[in-house]
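Ops channel
N.P.: pipeline sanity check, posting one input/output pair.
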C-alpha cells in the first residue's frame, strides 16, 4: 500500500469514468531518454504509450518494446479482466478500469489498487535510473483465498513516433524465467522475465488497437501489437509477482532491491530540493520529481557523463533553447548545481560558428543550428549558475566560448544573424527558416517567420552583452567591447516602443516593416535586465506598467500567457485538428505555461507585490492532477476553459513554475 504521502490520488469517481481515466496520463523515466507511459484506465491512447520505450543511443533512438500486459485474475472461481483496450470500431473491451478502487502516484511511480470481492491487488510500475529497464509488480495486498494471475505480453519494435501494422512474426525464444524477443534480423534483442510462475510462448498479432488521441491529432491512430507470451502465477495474500522488461539480459530480477533503489533515488531528489525550497507545499514537492524526469545523460567524446534536458514528453528530444531556459528551474532551484554545471559544459562542446544547437534530432548524429535565441539564453543560464555557486573555475573555462559567440554575432553567422552596425540591434532570419521560440513550420510554411529584429532576441542580446562585461571584469579581461555594444543596444531599444498602441513592436525592420502584433515576447525586455548599474532597464517605469497591463488584459490566462492577443485577425483559440491546423495555432493564440515565469518576474519588478504575483502562479499547480499527472503541460488552448494540449510534461513549464515559486518565496 501507499507508505509515502500522495499528492496525486484518485478513487472510483475518476478511475471508473472512462473519459476522465483516459485523459489522465502517467510518466516514468530512466534518466537516459527512455520512458514508460500510459493512462489510468490502461487504454492505449497514444503511439507513445508503452511499458518500455528504450533509448538505444541515449538520450535518443527511442523504440517501443513492451507495449502492455493484459492482466486477468481468477479468484474464488470467477475470472476477472483488469485491463482495457479500445478497438477500431470504437468499442472498449474489456472494461477492467471498473475494478480500479484507487490510483495514485508514489513519487513518480503509478500505482493501481484493483478490488474484486474482498481481494485487493496492487500494481506498481517503475524504471531503474540509467537503465532501459521497467519493473511491473503485482502484489496481493489482501484476500481470503489465493488468486491466479495471467499476463498477456504484447510487444513491438518500432520507432516511438511510428505505428505498427501487422508484419512477419517476431522471433520469441524461451529462456530462464522468461523470453527473448528478436523483432527481425539485425534488431537489438530485448527480454521479458518473471520472478515466479510459468511462461507459455505465443505467436499472434493483435490488430486494430485504436489510439484516440492520435486520431484527434490527425493521424490514423490504428496499430497492431504482437502477443509474444503469457506469464502465469499464483499469489497468496502478501505475495508479489514481478515482470521485468529490459534490453539487458542480466538485469536484476530482485524487485525488492530494485524498488528500494528507486525509492532511494527519488528520496535523494526531494531531499536536495527541500534544501532549496523550504516549506514548499505538496504540489511544489511533486514538481521536484517532475523536474528530474527531464534530466538525461548525453555523453560526448570527452565526457561520457555529460548531461542534457529533454524538452518534453512524449515526443521531444533535447533542445538547446528549452534546455537553457529550463536549466535554472530544473537544477538550481532543486538544489542540483552539479547537474547544471555538466549541462553547461556539454553544450559548450557543440558550439559552432558562435551558435548553440537548436536541437539534437532523433535520427542522425549532427545537431541542427536553426536558432537565434538558444545561444543567448546560454549566457543567462551561466549567469544564474554562477550567482548560485560562485564557480569561477567554470566561468573561466567557458569564457573563451562566450567570447567566440559574441564575436560571431558581431560579424555575422548563419541565417543572416548579425548585428546591424547602424543601431547595434541583432538581426536574424531568412525565408523558409524558423529561428525564434515561435518556430512552428509545416513543410515549407514557416507560420511565424519573424525575420528582422525580434524584441525578445534583442532583450537577450542586451542581457548577454551586459553579462559578458561582468564576466570579463570578474576574470580580469577587457570589458570595453561588451560595454560599448550593450550601451548601443540600450540607446536604440526605444525604437521598439509603439506609441500608437502603448506597447512594443514584436519585430523591427522586417520584410514588411515593423510588426505590431501583440505578443508576450516584449515581457523579456522587462524580466531579463537586472535593473542595476551593470545592466540598466531597457524601458522606463511607465512603459513597463503599460506593457504589463496590456498583458494582463489580453494575454494572461489561468495557465500561462497567450502567444497572440485574441483581437488579432490571425488569432486561433483552440489547438486542435490536423498537424497543419495545430501548427498553425501553435504560436497564434495558444497559451504557453512557461511564459508565466517571465510574467511574474516582470510583475515583481514593476510592483514588488509578492502576494499578487504568487496568485498568478497557483492555477498552474492544479494542472498536476490532470493530463500529465504530476507534471505541467506544454500548452493550453487560448480560449476558456484553457484545455491542456501538446506534451503532457514540458521542461520549461516545470522549470518556470519552480523558479517563480522560489522567486516569490525569496521576497516574502
Amino acid at each position: 500500500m501507499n507508505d509515502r504521502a500522495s499528492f496525486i490520488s484518485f478513487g472510483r469517481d475518476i478511475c471508473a469514468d472512462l473519459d476522465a481515466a483516459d485523459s489522465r496520463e502517467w510518466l516514468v523515466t530512466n534518466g537516459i531518454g527512455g520512458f514508460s507511459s500510459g493512462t489510468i484506465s490502461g487504454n492505449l491512447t497514444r503511439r507513445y504509450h508503452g511499458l518500455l520505450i528504450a533509448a538505444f543511443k541515449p538520450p535518443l533512438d527511442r523504440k517501443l518494446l513492451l507495449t502492455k500486459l493484459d492482466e486477468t485474475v481468477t479468484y474464488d472461481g470467477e475470472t476477472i479482466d483488469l485491463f482495457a483496450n479500445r478497438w477500431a470500431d470504437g468499442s472498449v473491451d474489456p472494461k477492467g478500469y471498473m475494478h480500479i478502487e484507487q490510483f495514485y502516484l508514489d513519487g513518480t511511480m503509478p500505482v493501481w489498487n484493483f478490488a474484486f470481492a474482498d481481494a485487493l491487488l496492487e500494481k506498481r510500475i517503475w524504471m531503474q535510473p540509467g537503465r532501459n529497464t521497467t519493473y511491473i509488480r503485482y502484489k496481493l495486498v489482501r484476500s481470503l483465498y489465493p488468486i491466479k494471475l495471467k499476463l498477456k505480453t504484447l510487444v513491438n519494435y518500432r520507432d516511438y513516433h511510428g505505428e505498427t501494422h501487422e508484419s512477419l512474426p517476431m522471433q520469441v525464444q524461451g529462456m530462464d524465467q522468461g523470453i527473448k524477443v528478436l523483432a527481425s534480423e539485425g534488431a537489438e534483442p530485448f527480454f521479458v522475465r518473471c520472478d515466479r510462475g510459468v511462461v507459455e510462448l505465443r505467436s499472434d498479432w493483435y490488430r486494430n488497437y485504436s489510439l484516440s488521441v492520435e486520431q484527434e491529432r490527425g493521424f490514423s491512430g490504428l496499430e497492431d501489437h504482437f502477443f509474444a507470451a503469457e506469464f502465469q502465477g499464483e499469489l497468496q495474500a502478501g505475495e508479489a509477482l514481478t515482470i521485468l522488461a529490459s534490453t539487458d539480459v542480466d538485469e536484476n530480477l530482485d524487485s525488492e532491491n530494485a524498488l528500494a533503489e528507486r525509492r532511494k533515488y527519488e528520496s535523494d531528489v526531494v531531499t536536495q530540493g527541500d534544501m532549496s525550497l523550504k516549506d514548499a507545499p505538496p504540489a511544489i514537492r511533486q514538481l521536484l520529481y517532475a523536474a528530474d524526469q527531464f534530466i538525461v545523460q548525453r555523453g560526448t567524446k570527452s565526457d561520457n557523463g555529460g548531461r542534457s534536458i529533454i524538452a518534453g514528453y512524449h515526443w521531444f528530444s533535447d533542445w538547446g533553447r528549452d534546455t537553457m531556459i529550463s536549466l535554472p528551474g530544473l537544477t538550481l532551484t532543486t538544489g542540483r548545481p552539479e547537474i547544471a554545471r555538466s549541462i553547461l559544459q556539454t553544450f559548450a562542446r557543440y558550439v559552432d560558428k558562435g551558435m548553440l544547437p537548436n536541437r539534437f534530432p532523433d535520427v542522425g548524429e549532427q545537431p541542427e543550428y536553426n536558432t537565434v535565441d538558444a545561444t543567448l539564453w546560454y549566457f543567462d543560464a551561466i549567469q544564474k549558475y554562477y550567482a548560485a555557486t560562485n564557480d569561477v573555475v567554470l566561468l573561466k573555462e567557458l569564457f573563451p566560448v562566450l567570447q567566440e559567440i559574441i564575436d560571431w554575432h558581431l560579424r555575422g553567422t548563419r541565417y543572416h544573424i548579425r548585428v546591424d552596425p547602424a543601431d547595434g540591434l541583432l538581426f536574424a532570419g531568412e525565408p523558409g527558416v524558423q529561428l525564434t521560440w515561435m518556430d512552428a513550420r509545416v513543410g515549407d510554411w514557416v507560420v511565424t517567420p519573424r525575420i528582422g529584429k525580434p524584441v525578445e532576441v534583442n532583450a537577450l542580446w542586451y542581457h548577454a552583452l551586459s553579462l559578458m562585461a561582468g564576466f570579463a571584469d570578474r576574470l580580469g579581461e577587457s570589458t570595453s567591447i561588451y560595454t560599448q555594444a550593450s550601451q548601443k543596444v540600450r540607446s536604440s531599444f526605444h525604437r521598439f516602443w509603439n506609441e500608437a498602441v502603448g506597447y512594443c513592436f514584436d519585430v523591427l525592420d522586417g520584410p514588411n516593416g515593423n510588426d505590431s502584433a501583440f505578443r508576450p515576447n516584449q515581457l523579456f525586455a522587462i524580466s531579463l535586465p537586472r535593473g542595476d548599474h551593470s545592466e540598466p532597464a531597457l524601458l522606463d517605469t511607465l512603459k513597463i506598467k503599460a506593457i504589463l497591463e496590456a498583458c494582463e488584459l489580453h494575454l494572461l490566462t489561468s495557465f500561462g500567457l497567450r502567444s497572440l492577443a485574441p483581437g488579432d485577425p490571425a488569432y486561433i483559440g483552440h489547438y486542435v485538428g490536423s498537424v497543419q491546423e495545430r501548427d498553425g495555432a501553435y504560436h497564434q493564440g495558444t497559451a504557453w505555461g512557461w511564459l508565466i515565469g517571465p510574467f511574474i518576474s516582470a510583475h515583481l519588478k514593476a510592483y514588488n507585490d509578492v502576494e499578487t504575483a504568487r496568485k498568478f502562479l497557483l492555477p498552474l499547480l492544479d494542472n498536476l492532477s490532470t493530463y500529465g499527472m504530476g507534471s505541467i503541460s506544454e500548452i493550453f488552448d487560448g480560449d476558456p476553459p484553457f484545455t491542456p494540449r501538446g506534451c503532457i510534461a514540458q521542461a520549461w513549464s516545470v522549470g518556470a513554475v519552480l523558479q517563480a515559486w522560489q522567486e516569490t518565496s525569496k521576497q516574502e
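N.P.: looks fine end to end. The first helix runs from residue 12 to 15.
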